Fold:
Amino acid sequence: QVQLVESGGGLVQAGGSLRLSCARSGRVFSSYDMAWFRQRPGAEREFVARIGWSGASTDYADSVKGRFTISRDNAAKTVYLQMNSLKPEDTAVYYCAARAVGQNDYIYWGQGTQVTVSA
Structure:
C-alpha cells in the first residue's frame, strides 16, 4: 500500500514563497513518477508539475513555469514543490500524486494541503 502525506501549505502574501513536501510510505519510492496537482476554488483539479523516477525529467504547467520547482529525494522518499513569486491565483489545495513508471494514470493521491496567497 502506498501512502502520500503532504505538508507545508499555509497563508503567504503575494510575491512570497512556500515549499510543499510529500512524504511517501510503502513500495520502493524510486519506481514511481511523482506529480503535484492543484484544485483552485470552483475549478477542476489541474496538473502543476511532474518529476520522473530518477529526477532527471520534469514538466510544468505553463502557469507555473519559472516560478515553481519540483524535486525529489529518493532516499528520504519525499518530493518537494518549491513555489516562488506566488500569486493570488495560485491559491488552491495542492495534491501530491504517484504513478508507477510506465503507467498513464496517477493512482495514489495525498489528502491535499491548502495554499492561500493574499493580495
